[in-house]
Design brief:
- With 180 residues, this protein is an all-alpha fold.
- 87% of the residues lie in helices and 0% in strands.
- It has five helices and no strands.
- It is globular, with a radius of gyration of 16 Å.
Length: 180
Amino acid sequence: IAQTLFTGALGMGSSIWLMYYFQVVGGQLYFAIGVLSGLFITGSIYGALLVSRGKIGFGIWRVLLLIFISAMAVLNYSAVIDFPIWLAIVSFGAYHLLIGGVVGMLYPLLLYTADEKGLLGTKAPAKIYSADLIGSALTAPLFGILIIPVFGMTRALVLIIAIYALIMVVSLSFKNKLKG
């Protein structure tokens, strides 16, 4: 449940951070917000499909999450250049597609784990889904209203990286519990 809560928070926090940064780089967020949000959802669907077809496990999920966080750090520390709007939409769209995919992979991965433990017929699926939604719902206003405006983009990114670290700790301890 904690892993799902943190992943929901990471997905929403990252999406809000990317939209703020898109506004800095592209300057036309309102023009592209539907496209960027749609790409996040498309990534979620694609991530869930990859897991349901047996193409992705927890190991690959962790690697993709690390790639995403690393790419955000590079983006944050790169010089702000004058992107044409189409290039900003494509590059930030790719970021939204990737983080959506990472978030979309987690729910079916945890459902498979619940099924292996004989918990699928219990309240486990609802608790997993609820934790993801709670993490997202709490993070959106925090990042949009408080964290980014008060602390800035770089400190907000540091917080996203801290959330990522929590996910990895919880994920690896969860993996060890399954083995034990």
